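Re: duplicated header lines in exported structure tokens

Our pipeline writes sequence and tokens for each protein into one text file. With two proteins the header for the second block appears twice in some exports. Here is an export where it did not happen, for reference. First protein block:
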Amino acid sequence: MKRRDFLIQTGIFSASAITAVGSHAWVAKSATGNSQQQRLIVIFLRGAVDGLNVVVPYTETAYYQARPQIAIPQPGKNGGVLDLDGRFGLHPALASVMPLWQQGSLAFVHACGSPDPTRSHFDAQQYIESATPGDKSTQDGWMNRLLGVISNKTPIQAVSVGQTTPLIFSGRMAVANLARGKNASKPLSIDHPQVGAAFDQLYSGNDALSQAYRQGRMARQALMNSLDSEMEMANNGAPLPNGFASDAQRLAQLMVKDPRIELGFVALGGWDTHVNQGGTQGQLAQNLGRLGEGLAALVKGLGSVYQNTAIIVMSEFGRTVQQNNSGGTDHGHGNVMWVLGGQVRGGKIYGEWPGLSTTQLYQSRDLAIATDFRDVISAVLERHLHLNEAKLNLVLPNYAHTQKVVLIVK
């Protein structure tokens, strides 16, 4: 086995980190940096969540006609939506995030998504993560490009929750990976003192691979130190809850503890509801409940850091307006994006609403897209991370704003 392959397989760092270092070694910085550092976290719902049953257009007769079994009732009815603004309501399973809406730090952008017409999960996710819809030649992700324009070259400036680096974080910049659940603090072979010492000696040179190894080792050590400290304090040593809430809380605590961590990413599956989707209760409701609990845990865990954090929740595309014969929905087009944060102009549904009558639908079957997802991302990058036009063009290449979505207090 080649040395390079061993480093990847042992999980010291991701494949993208190996090509990221080049000839520049990482310079150590104190973890006692600026606690007011702006942060960005992206939650990707893989599988195409049904946005029409997340933020429900409950005043649309066509919605209820198209979904006789899976529509969410109007406010005040049994199992009804939680009213947002008199036109739209939130799925009742998401009650845990309603306080954020009421406090004005949660907003939604409806009829939003990628303009590319694909209904392939693989292609659509690639286009969302690369931010170049319709262009399969893009090899890096927009969050990696973002890291390139804000980077201070610390080894844990960006953290992806999961065993592998997703496309959105793939590219020339190094990204640290944090394993999910109980695996997050599971020792690797490299963590054994004798093994670690041997590899430290082997990769003590100035070549690019040795520098990449040392960067990966420092990233892992920094993450493990934070996790060990957090686990000792949590519930008198009792394990954290399973699932997204646990991962979200862990990511939040790492960000609070170490201000060098500016970018975070989590992907959640289970949103491809072709069969037995359910309405107020059922498959989608259960997943939304876990999502809401995880977001609430993330916000709570961030504490005062939430004031300087923006959280984007997105999916690759929406689902058909009409329910299918299996009590579910099929691959659609327009969807809803979420934006949370201490500086978000929340308590509002953004974007033009095209309507659900047959003549208003995309290809006579789907919610049309009135807001390009890159308009939402660019608004967050410009107003929250304070990127100028030149840097925005590097992160979102070959894209001109179609509209200004003023989501963030500037």
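Second protein block, exported in the same file:
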Amino acid sequence: MKKKNVINLIKYYSERNDVSFKNEAYEIAKDFDNSGDYQLAEYIMALLTETNTFFPQMDSDDLNFFEKIDSSDNMLLLPDEITNELLGIVNAIERNIGINKFMFIGAPGTGKTEAVKHLSRILKRDVYMVDFASVIDSKLGQTQKNITSLFKEINSLNRPNQVIILFDEIDAIALDRTNQNDLREMGRATTSILKGLESINDNIVLIATTNLYEHFDKALIRRFDRVVNFNNYSEDDLMQIAEKLLDSYLTKLKLRNKDIRLFRKIMKLAPLPYPGDLQNLIKTSVAFSDPNDETDYFRRLYYSVTGEKPSDLRKLQSQKFTIREIEILTKISKSSVARELKGDHLDE
């Protein structure tokens, strides 16, 4: 952290400039994270996303189309490009100039829904997700009527500036009206959504997510103030996320055996998945490992990545693992590995 960060924090605090104060704090957290002080970075993020604040609740008896979702989960790690987009959204919302509708697009597991939860923590808003199962009806014309009622319900909220409305997987109800494969009923539903989005209260934040963006009606896309693409992960981004996830789970389980070089070699044996799947892969490998063997998670990780047990010494050699790393992966002593691979060059 630099002196200017401290000066800026004091300045923004004295000016009561919450947006700039938060941005500066995020930069400080990022700086600690880049320098390897992950715990301090996470602590700062936790302070910024503190949820022990009173939120006026929507009356559950009046909710026909919503369900409240828990936003207290840890945030799924995101690359800088997407994080900066989220900070921009926070800035736009807090400036209260009518920019309040956002679409998050990307493949499953890219962190779209987790990002909504994170925004709710920063903005201190509750998240209410539309239950499309209660909106879609088999009766002719009823879905359209339900959508009209849905937006009336949204616009009648008593305190609209304290909620986020989430249209998770909006493709369930809104597709291209000109698509010949689309049912006419769903085309009318899309038209109703267009009208609803036009009339929505400016104080309400509405976020839609989808992984079928290319099939959307262009008129629908234009109703949103910003489209954020969550497919923007480089291999370096994914590897950094993988390492932070590993560090987090090893810390939680108090496992001290961390070999980043070996971890990277294993992870590079297959294309890295998006963060959702990456999180599950690493979490289960560590959680299912033998508590009496602190290197067992490497073997489980290898199996999860390749679908094979690390038992073929020649194959492990071809994958550029050293004798010491092969010993960890196979539980065969280095001397035995060396004898088996006699005549082949391997680094220690």
